[in-house]
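Data card: per-record layout.
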Amino acid sequence: MTRGHWIVLVVILGILVLVMPKSCASKVYKWVDAQGVAHYSDQQPDMADQVEVQVEEIPTPAPPDTTREVRIRNRGSKRHPQLFVVNPFHGPVNIRLKLTQADNIVTEPPLPDRLLDTVLPGQYEGDILFISPEDGRRGWGWGYKFTWELGDPAAVHDPPAPYRLPFAITGSALVGQAFNGETTHNNPQNRYAVDIGLPIGTPVLAARAGVVMDVENNFSDGKAKARYVQRNNYVRILHDDGTMAVYAHLKRGSLRVRPGQRVQRGQVIARSGNSGFSTGPHLHFVVQKNSHGTLTSIPFEFADAQGQPFTPQKGQWLRSH
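The structure for this 321-residue chain is written out next.
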């Protein structure tokens, strides 16, 4: 999911007002099949007369947090603008701010080629640019646009060991799509992703230690339709080398971690699901980094039962350990 959209402002900044709808409740059906696997759905199963079905009333969660955006505002005056930035994520972001108008002004810090390119640490709030007229007796004007992306472009992928398999299941799980998959692994963010077919509710484990940078936990359904692309539950974990792992299509309400929390390799972080753009229940796992302002995926290796590295392949059966 791309975060780096350009935002253009000239002197005046807008204000975003969020309106939250009232909450309500929905039903979730649970049943166990002949193999002992538990299933969950918001639709009553066809075999309801053959199996015991439990019905839960659960509150409809709040809509996704649209405030998870890097924000810049002027907290100075019209004559002495003072640009203030907020990074709400528990990890670094790369800011690129370009002056689109600079008539009779000076800035602090000075901007080579009118461009500010910097990395902000997680949860950062502070001033990034001061603007004032160079000659107060003359007219002056200014404007800017900015873009941002998760991660630090200086990060170098250096895992201490091959990644562990990110799930716990009895039996094996099939790799439905691997690196350079033709269906959805054909863009920079997901080129080196892997899709692992898992029953809904399967424990999802951290493949590597790190800090939870961002999460989404509010969507219940998934379909292979464009409007579901942004309806995806996920956990993003920041590794010590600055790279990030994303665990996606998770079950609504199943997250066991929170932003800012340190997690260990093998720790349960959520349950698998079928949220977002999806043809069926599975776990989408990918390692990413910020490459000069663009989020890109990175090739990685899993560890087998003996700790030996291997690259996941389409059609391969994986057994958790």
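Known properties of this structure: The two ends are 30 Å apart (CA to CA). Residues 172-319 form a domain with the Glucose Permease (Domain IIA) fold (CATH 2.70.70.10).

See the next section for split statistics.
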